[in-house]
Amino acid sequence: MITVENWAEIRRLHRSEGISQAGIVRRLGISRNTVSKALASDRPPKYERVPLGLAVGSVILVPISTQSGEALEERVSENSALERHTQLGEGLLGWVIGLVLIAAAMVAWDLWRRRSAGADAAAPSGAPDGAKGTDVSAAGRPMSSVVIAVVLAVAAIAVGTGTIVQAVLIGHSGAQAVWGG
């Protein structure tokens, strides 16, 4: 991905110094496609995190953690701490699936919001001045969009916190099972 500094430098070299795209490619050692895209875009590049990938990765790691717990069961004699550890471990998958669902909802909402913003920008404004419309927040977004953002954020924090607490409890109960604490 191109940095904001490179984007600005490409545009400066082309617009202020009149250097051709090929000259910029040679000078900066950046691909021709990158130079073309930088010159075509009106905005600098921005980094966007994709929460869905991290959440899916967590689902993949749960079976590995489960295997670790099963190996612990084979090495430690049966006791109440080990039973608690096993029960807590079985509950982790539900929390992680909750994270995946919230991350998927966040990605879907973001895509919908971007498409709506693009469609709104492209649509002609036919409403007369003073026409009543959708309630809008101070940031210029529809109130429903703000409410969805808040609900998703609260859900992500709640489920993320639950997942962390569950993982800590699992680790603690595993340590108690091994060391008899």
> What is the residue-mean pLDDT, rounded to a whole number?
80
Our measurement of the CA-to-CA distance between the termini, rounded to an integer number of angstroms, reads 50 Å
Shape: elongated
Structural class: mainly alpha
- Total number of domains: 2
Oligomer kind: single chain
Number of strands: 0
Beta percentage is under 5%
Q: From the alpha carbons, calculate the radius of gyration and give it in angstroms.
A: 26 Å
Biggest sheet overview: none
Sequence stretches where pLDDT stays below 50 over 5 or more residues: 125-139
Overview of the structural elements:
The protein is built from six helices and no strands. It has 181 residues and is mostly helical. It folds into two domains: 4-40; 51-118 and 137-179, no CATH class.
Give me some keywords for this one.
single chain; mainly alpha; 2 domains; 6 helices; elongated
Q: Concise description?
A:
The chain is an all-alpha fold and 181 residues long.
Secondary structure layout plus pairing:
Blueprint: H1 4-15, H2 21-28, H3 32-40, H4 51-75, H5 80-122, H6 143-179
Helix pairs in contact: 4-5, 5-6
